């Protein structure tokens, strides 16, 4: 089923977040972004998305255990393909927003990073990273539909992710101390899969604690609790 979604907001980030909210009832792994359209309408940003939606029966995916410490190796060629596709998506987004910017691609052992640099604007980050998270979600949906596998590309803008991860680690360390002191579970703020992996590993190094992921993307969180 193909559906046209039109969203509006006072900023691009608001319009993008509103569009994602429209997709909340769908299995987002089956959403394909065909073509973005961006217009300035009466002081508001209008975003047009054409998506293909395949609805599936609900399943119990609200909670999943933390990933195993070791994972199967990832094909470097597959990561290259996903990174190139994500870069194409971001180039189109920069063009649609009439923004400058270069792309920096890094392929690591288990995932790739595509970072927008020299953009000269916070428009792609948004308030508290809201716009960046929405872009990450659209890239994830697009790649999973295109390659029919879980996307392993993290999108960043001007080093925002590294700064955010440092703060997330600090908060996770505080939560670890709280759980050790009280014995009560602590739920952290929503994170992407790459951030959750770092936090899971951090918890795995602490005796007497375990962690799991809970919720659906992009609101998936890490829960830290006693073993």
Structure write-up:
There is one protein chain. This protein is of the alpha+beta class and 227 residues long. It folds into two domains: 2-158, GMP Synthetase, Chain A, domain 3, CATH 3.30.300.20; 161-226, R3H-like domain (Ribosomal Protein S8, Chain: A, domain 1, 2-Layer Sandwich), CATH 3.30.1370.50. It contains five helices and eleven strands. The chain is globular.
What are the main properties of this structure?
single chain; 227 residues; alpha+beta; GMP Synthetase, Chain A, domain 3; Ribosomal Protein S8, Chain: A, domain 1; 4-stranded antiparallel beta sheet; 26% strand
Q: How many domain units?
A: 2
Low-confidence stretches: 25-38, 53-71
Query: Main β-sheet, in a few words?
Result: 4 strands, antiparallel
Separation of termini? 45 Å
Helix content: 25-40%
Choose one word for the global shape.
globular
CATH architecture of the largest domain: 2-Layer Sandwich
What's the CATH topology label of the largest domain? GMP Synthetase, Chain A, domain 3
Task: Give me the count of strands.
Answer: 11
Can you say what the CATH homologous superfamily of the largest domain is? K homology (KH) domain
Rg, Å, rounded: 18 Å
Class per helix and strand makeup: alpha+beta
Percent of residues in beta strands?
Answer: 25-35%
What is the chain-wise order of helices and strands? EHEEEEHEEHEHEHEE
């Amino acid at each position: 089923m193909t559906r046209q979604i039109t969203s509006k907001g006072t900023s691009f980030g608001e319009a993008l977040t509103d569009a994602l909210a429209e997709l909340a009832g769908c299995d987002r792994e089956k959403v394909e972004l065909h073509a973005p359209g961006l217009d300035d309408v009466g002081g508001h940003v209008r975003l047009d998305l054409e998506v293909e939606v395949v609805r599936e029966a609900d399943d119990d995916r609200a909670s999943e255990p933390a990933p195993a410490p070791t994972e199967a190796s990832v094909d470097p060629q597959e990561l290259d393909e996903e990174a190139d596709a994500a870069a194409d998506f971001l180039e189109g987004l920069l063009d649609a927003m009439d923004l400058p910017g270069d792309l920096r691609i890094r392929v690591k052992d288990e995932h790739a990073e595509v970072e927008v640099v020299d953009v000269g604007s916070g428009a792609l980050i948004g308030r508290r990273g809201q716009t960046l998270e929405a872009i990450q979600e659209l890239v994830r949906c697009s790649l999973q539909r295109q390659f029919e596998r879980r996307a392993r590309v993290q999108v960043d803008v001007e080093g925002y992710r590294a700064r955010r991860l440092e703060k997330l680690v600090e908060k996770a360390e505080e939560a670890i101390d709280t759980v050790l002191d009280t014995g009560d579970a602590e739920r952290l703020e929503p994170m992407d899969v790459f951030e959750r992996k770092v936090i899971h590993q951090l918890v795995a190094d602490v005796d007497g604690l375990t962690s799991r992921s809970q919720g659906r993307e992009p609101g998936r969180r890490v829960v830290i609790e006693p073993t």
